[in-house]
Design a protein that fits this description.
L-amino peptidase D-ALA esterase/amidase, homodimer, alpha+beta, 15 strands, 2 domains, 6-stranded mixed sheet, Ubiquitin-like (UB roll)
């Protein structure tokens, strides 16, 4: 299912030898439909990997037929040789599919600085195999091949009225930073032109993947692409389509959060009473990025003092002495002073809800994050990634 | 020595019962000199503790005679009762010394939200004892009483031409965030008016304490004060005085870095080739705040890819594909591509030097930080602080 739930798509996942475990490591998604519309959003990191630089050009004209993805190397900061590898990968897939290389999106994930001749040879051979293995039921194989430190494949489907949108995601991102990349491929058989795909995707990622912030570290390779085949013959209402894409992205984002490496809590930070949505996001993100607070959560300590210390560093408009803070529904701080005792709060469940009322305005935002644990430090120190 | 190295100062450190260990926990520094000039810099966190709010008012007129400091409670977000406790503490010291309460700086450190009647009673009684114990050789007792999770007292002295400047520091700050506060008291017998004290102190902290960033978490209680007694009768040249204060602050900042809780590496990040000093600081700070990079350093992994991923998130002017990165003198990345193999780099010493050449301009800056370790997570999750 996932990327092959929509009509007109084929996918595959193959073993190219990039992963030392011998597991599948190259995936391919191809749009065989009457339409070949595409939209993409990419990491806002200025340190962009070669496949990101390439793929931004590919999606610029709103047309793409294929997405080829590899793990086992980010192909980032690998010099001109690395950029040529990305180009060659697209050409290889294009030639086998009899399309233009400019219609092939390329995604890579793994260690930065890796992209030598061996890497190139394996990616090219894997891409050729992936074309051979393409199947209208290959969605799960593709979702499996893009896994890195993920413990399970991440797939989701949202049904529209006569059309469908499905997708797969891996990793990582700012979440399971062992491999520090979030790759997402979404497909739909709705008949939607590229401009509308783009606005729906932007709108969806703005309130889903963009609000997932496990460790504040932004990848060089993050890519989310949405392909439309038009095979359902139905053009949905704009709002209905955007809602479906948003629901799909929210589902995948929650799967990413739930599978974040090393995490022992999935934390939902709800900021209410902000002057603007942007300020609500800024405040929520300041909590997600506070090592002190995230370590306290790991220790099941509802340390509201660290919440106030974190938000005090933002430029959002509010009075720190007028803020309420609740952990799992228990208000521990009211108007910047102690309220109920911290012992009233049960921190043992994996899910934690932190509610912050700034009492400054009508805007709200929700940020998803994870705690800072020994396993996080271990995963990110014990081996290079 | 330290705060009593300069003529005209007395100090003490006493047991008030705030620390469960029974160790000294209230310190007092008094200026008995002909001049009572003061300058202070405080946390830029908008979530300010009551003692910070109080002390900012005290130093505003350029006069202060005493600094009273307690551990065992930050007296932050403790409501109006907490602010009254700070006020009462100043009044208690003022009455015993026969000075005005408006000339008493108050500093607190410990858990946010702690400041009940028991806390108040102990701080008040401890402040009275501290006045009784004042001594011209009490500097080390004071430096010991402000220790929290510090493993040793931090003192330093810089000798001028007929005058001296000395100081003590504790903790913490953004460094050893178990108690999340940096408190620094500096004294001099140079005959310097408040305005010049202020400019010297600002200039010194700007390139020392402000460039120490272990975990990116800003305290609600950070305070640095400089008191001048005028007892040497000598008014130094402005530059010489600023240089001495800067050397003193640099010495104390290095002591703070070296004693940071949980750290296994003391990291000096040197950014060169920046367009401006501010941008060099921004770039250096982005490395210090990258959990991915700091965990890699803990694992003795010179992960230059994570350096580039971190700096790519800044707004500083440079081309990521034109940057050189060295670890301990070994250039691992040249112009955004692999240079020498990472195995050439010995990461085993505690001291690590990361040199980053942006090749964009003439400006430089140095940031001091520490790695992200299991002990950091343990210290900040295993107990509330």
């Amino acid at each position: 299912m996932s990327v092959t739930a929509a009509q007109g798509f084929e996918a595959s996942g193959v073993v190219a030898g990039l992963k030392s475990t011998g597991k599948p490591d190259v995936a391919l998604v191809v749009n065989r439909g009457r339409r070949a519309a595409v939209a993409g959003v990419f990491t806002s990191n200025r340190a962009k990997a070669h496949p990101v630089i390439w793929s931004q050009q590919v999606v610029a004209d709103g047309d793409a037929r294929a997405v080829v993805l590899n793990s086992g190397g980010a192909n980032c900061f690998t010099g001109p040789f690395g950029f040529q590898t990305t180009h060659l990968t697209a050409e290889t897939v294009a030639e086998a599919l009899d399309i233009g290389a400019g219609d092939v999106v390329v995604c890579s994930t793994g260690l930065i600085g890796v992209g030598d001749q061996t890497f190139r040879d394996k990616v090219i051979a894997g891409s050729q195999s992936a074309v051979v293995e393409l199947s209208p039921t290959g969605g799960t194989a593709a979702a499996t091949a893009i896994m890195t430190t993920d413990t399970h494949a991440k797939e989701a489907v949202v049904q529209g009225d006569g059309w469908v949108v499905g997708g797969m995601a891996k990793g990582a991102g700012m979440l399971a930073p062992g491999l520090a990349t979030m790759l997402v491929v979404l497909t739909t058989d709705a008949d939607v032109p590229a401009a509308k795909l783009h606005s729906a995707l932007r709108s969806a990622t703005h309130v889903t993947f963009d609000r997932l912030d496990s460790d504040g570290c932004m990848s060089t390779n993050d890519t989310v692409v949405l392909l439309a085949s038009g095979e359902s013959g139905i053009t949905p209402d704009d709002d209905a389509f955007t809602r479906a894409v948003t629901a799909l992205c929210a589902d995948l984002a929650e799967q990413l959060q739930g599978d974040a490496e090393g995490a022992s809590h999935d934390i939902t930070i709800e900021v209410v009473g902000a002057v603007s949505e942007d300020e609500a996001v800024e405040v929520g993100r300041s909590l997600a990025r506070s090592n002190l607070l995230m370590a306290a959560v790991f220790g099941n300590d509802p340390n509201w003092g660290r919440v106030l210390a974190a938000i005090g560093t933002t430029s959002a408009q509010f009075d720190p002495y007028d803020v309420d803070v609740s952990f799992n529904g228990v208000r521990l701080c009211a108007k910047g002073a102690p309220d109920r005792p911290v012992t009233d709060c049960d921190m043992s469940p994996r899910a934690l809800r932190i509610l912050l009322d700034l009492h400054a305005g009508p805007a709200t935002a929700t940020i998803l994050t994870n705690d800072l644990t020994h396993d996080y430090v271990h995963e990110n120190s014990a081996y290079s990634s």
